[in-house]
Model the fold of this input.
Amino acid sequence: MLQRVAGFSRVESPGRELDLATVYRRHGAAVSRLIQRLGRRHDAEDLLQEVFLVVQRRLSEFRGESSLETWLYAITIRVVSQRRRKERARRLLFLQAAPALEVERPPAETPLAGALKRQAARTIYAILDRLSERDRTLLVLFEIEGLPAATISEVLAMSENNVWVGLHRARARFRKLYAESFGREQEE
Amino acid sequence: MPKQLSRPIERWANESSRAGIDAELGELFRALPEQAALDTAKLRAVERRLTAASVTSARRRVRYWVLGFALMSSLTGGALAEWGGPLLRFAGIAALPERPPPQAGGSSRAVTGARRARGVSGTASAIASSAGPSLTPPEPESVPPSLPPAEPRTMAAAPSSFAPAPASALSRESELLSRALTELRRHRDAAAALRSLDRYQAEFPHGVMALEAATTRVDALLLLGKRASALDLLGRLPLDQSGRRVELLLLRAELFAENSCARAMADFDAVLASSPTGAQAERALYGRAGCRLRLGQAAEARADLVSYSARFPQGRFAEQVRARLAESP
Done:
């Protein structure tokens, strides 16, 4: 059912008692990757700790009804969303500007390839940043992480139909913002 | 729900159209680089903080249980004594013991006071000596800086939910560090402590308690009078991740101040901005005043001295401060 998620090890052996250290050692790196994918490079370390503090509190409640990966994905997305909401509230309260968008700087094969990749990342995240939390999450999980709709529906606790509807709408909004930003005409 | 909206779609990265916005978006998403995970050092740092947090929360839970139990016992015991005591005594079932007379004087408080007094670092004398001609250095202490004892965070104390490494490795790690701490703090044998720390370093170059081991090494180096090596090590440690952050920042500031007040200032400022303890604030204010004098910032130095005088009228450096203030009213 659940397809393999990049970086996550497949399935915990059934009946085996999980402890935080094991979960962290197996999945910490993958969670840190997802946090950065969700556009939080600057505070990824801090958020990673926050995610695993939640895991620590709730590990005893994990019954294995969903896979551990799905469970971790759901917690990570919630923690990142909460952080973003808090920041937005603080910015509104203290009239602060939004922080400059940070994009990933992968080691470049050639300067040109590196520049193209950086530009692609910058463009995608600049548009994602203007979308709602829900649209952004759906697009990151589907378009960037490449998760199937079935997994996304588990992670976000929504029906698969709703995932597709949400994706159609999120993509339409993304497309519109892209067209506006780069002076393209939208095809119907 | 509109049916066409719920039909499956292809990812942009797999988009096959050759023209239009979707084709451009396809190219864009295909060009998106792979996301790397955080590097190992950062992952380890988070692991260390999680371990520390879980130890703290376990200790807090135990404390609440003990407090709750004590409260319940005192309440139920008090009620029993009030209502049932005479009856029980009469029936010969229980004999309520006489309460022993209170001990004279607070011995534990005295011990804590003495320990705190010893905790004032000898490096302050170095600051004083660098604080300009009018700030006479205090009598140097015979014992080099003795940092307040801090038990190593042993994984044995951590709750079972977070036991990060195989028990044997952890217990070995903890044993080596405990040995170093005992040699250093109980026997004041810095050379032996350094040998244990070398062994720790050789066996666990990236151990869970590597930061604690490094800060213990700083203490040992200071005890041996190797101040330059201690400063060098302090300069390489991520002090923000240490439970002794303020204390170590202050130590680094004082060591920097021996040669470079310009470098010490940032640390003194950071200490004073981090809610230090009284003794730390006292040392930091005095040290910063000394550095400001050396840097020719007379007005700022005077402000620090006035602040010191107001906050610590009976402080360790109060005499020198008063003398300095009297010299330049």
Summary: Chain A has seven helices and no strands. Residues 179 and 187 of chain A are 10 Å apart (CA to CA). The mean pLDDT of chain A is 80. Chain A touches chain B through 51 residues (CB under 8 Å).
